[in-house]
Fold these 2 entries.
Entry 1:
Amino acid sequence: MITGKTKIIGIFADPVEHTLSPSIHNEAFQYLGLNYCYVPFHVKKEYLKDAIFAIKALNIKGVNITVPHKEAVIKYLDEVSDEAKYIGAVNTILNNEETLKGFNTDAKGFVLSLKNEKILIKDKIFLVLGAGGAAKAIVYGILKEGGRVYIYNRTLAKAMAIKERFSNLGFIEVVSIIDKSVTEKVQTIVNATSLGLKKDDPMPLSPELLKSEHVYCDIVYPETHLMKEAEKIGCKVIGGTGMLLWQAVAAFEIWTGLQAPVEIMKKTLNKVLT
Ligand code: ATR
C-alpha cells in the first residue's frame, strides 16, 4: 500500500510504455516487504533537465535512466561513479540526501548475464556489433573481465571512438566488414545494436556466419529472428532479458542497500514476457 512513507523510484525514458522494469522492481519490493514504489515517467529530451531537478524537488529516492537519456543525463548530476564516467553513460541514479549520484549497471548486468550461464569472458574473443550506449557498457564489461574485442558498427567512426576510449583496458580492434575471417576468430558474438527491436528489422549478421561453437548474445528481447536462427544452428544463445535482469539487480541494491531477490525478479520477468 502506498503511504506517506513510501519511497519513490522512477524510470525516465522516451518511449517508456514498453518498459518491464516497474514489474520487476515492484514485485521485488513487495516480496521483501519494502515500502517502495517504482513508477514510469515519460520524459522527453527537452524536459530531461527539469526531470532531473524534480528528483530532488519531489524527494524521489532513485531512478533508472534509459533511451535516449543515458549520456545526456551526466551533466545534470552532482556525482558520477568512476565506472559510469569511464563508460560515458548513466542508467541508475541514487538521491542520497539531495546529492544525485549516477551509476552504470549495464556493464555489470551484461557480465553477470554471461557468468550466470557459465560463459567465460577472460581470454575469450568477442565480436561486438554496434557502437551506441549499450555497446559502450558491454565493451567496457568485456575488457574489464579480461576478454578481447572486435567491434563493428554501421557508422565506423563511432566504433573507432569506442576503440580510442577503451584501448588502455585491453585488446580492442575495429573491423569494417564482417566475414568468416572475423567470425572464425571469435568465440562469442554480441548484438549490441537495436536491430531486432522491430519485427521487420534486418538481422545484424548473416546466420551463415554462425557456427554451433559460437555463443550468440543479444541485448534485444523478446527473442529475435537471429536468436532463433542461432538456436537452430546449435549455438548457445543468451537473450537480452539476462542483461535486463542483472542490471536491475545491481540498481535495486544501489537504491535499497539490500540484496535483491534475484529469483523473484527472474520469475516476474519470465511472467511478464509470456
Ligand atoms: P543504445 O543506447 O540502445 O545502444 P543507440 O546509442 O541509439 O542505442 O545505438 C544504436 C546502435 O544500433 C548503433 O550502433 C546503431 O548504428 P549507428 O551508430 O550506425 O547508428 C545501430 N543501428 C541502429 N539501426 C541500425 C541499422 N538499421 N543498421 C545497422 N545498425 C543499426
Entry 2:
Amino acid sequence: MPGLVTLGETMAVLGSPRPGPLRHAPHLELSIGGAESNVAIGVRRLGHPAAWIGRVGADEFGALVLERLRAEQVEVSGALVDPDAPTGLLVKEQRTPDVTRVQYYRTGSAGSRLCPADVDAAAAVITGAGVLHITGITPLLSPSAAGAVARAVELAVAAQVPVSLDVNHRAALGGAELLRERLAPLLPHLSHLFGGEEELLLLADATDEPSAVARLGGPELVVKRGARGASVYPADGGPELHRAAVPVRALDPVGAGDAFVAGYLTALLDGAPVAERLRLACLTGAFAVTVPNDWSGQPTRDELGLLDAEAGTTLR
Ligand code: ADP
Ligand code: KDG
C-alpha cells in the first residue's frame, strides 16, 4: 500500500515542563522533533505506511531519533548515521503560559548535511510512495539539503507521485528572500501547498490573501489559521472551503500544523474528497494542541472521537 515519504531534519528536543525562564528550570524533558517526521508519525498512527529520510549523528541523540521513529513504525531504511557531525538540538522554553521560545543548535548538524546522493540511495522509497511531503525548513538548512529536496521532488514527479509542501518558515534559518529563492524552483511541481496566512504572503511576496493565491496558483492551497480553523483553495479553481477549528483546551500550539498536514494527507491517501481532507486535518490539528509536545498527542484512528467527550470523562 503506497504511503507517505518525507525528508528533513529530526532533532533532539529539550523542553522545560513549566513556564518561566529556562535558566531557572530545575530539569528539562528529552524528546525528539522535526516537522517532517512529526507528519510521518501522524500519518502512520492513522494507518498508512510512512517513511522518513534524513541524517542523524553517531550519538545518543541520533540513536534516540531513530529509536522513537522505529517505535512509531515509521520506516527509516533511508536514514543515515553521519559519523562526522552531531544530531541537531532544539531547546524549547515555555517562557510564559502563552509564549514558547525555541532555540536551535543545528548549524553544521548531521541533518543539515543531507545531500542529493542520500536521496538517490533511497530513490525506491520515493518512487513507490503515494505522496512525497517536504517543508520549507529543509531547503534552508544548507545548499546540499536544498539539493536533496530538489532531487526528491524530481524523482517523485518522474514517478507521478504527488508532492506536498508545508512552508513552515523558520525565521532563524533565513529571511523571506532566502525562503523565496529556495522554494521557487519547487513550486511548479507541487500538488498541495500548506502554509499559515503570513508565511504564504511572504512566499508569494503579496500583501493580501487573494493576490497570494493568484501568485502561488497551481497547487491545491491549504491555509492554516490556528484557532480560527483552515481554508482550502482547490487546484481546479473551484469554490474555496472554510472550516472552523475544533474547540479544545489548548496547551501548546507547536506541532499543530504538522498534525493538521498529517490528517490532510492521510485523507488524501484514503482517497477522500477535499471536504473530508479538511475535516480530518482540523481534527488532528486540534489533538496536537492538547498536549505539550510537538507530536505525541497525535491520534490513532480509533481515538478520533475522543474530542467529542465531555470534560471529566473516564473511559473504562
Ligand atoms: P502551524 O503550527 O503550522 O502554525 P496552525 O497553528 O495554524 O499551524 O495550526 C494548524 C491547524 O491546527 C489549524 O488550522 C487548526 O485546524 C488546528 N489548530 C491550531 N490551533 C488550534 C486551537 N487552539 N484549537 C483548535 N484547533 C487548532
Ligand atoms: O513544526 C514543529 C516543529 O517546529 C518542530 O517539531 C521542530 O522541525 C522543527 C523545527 O525546525 O522547528
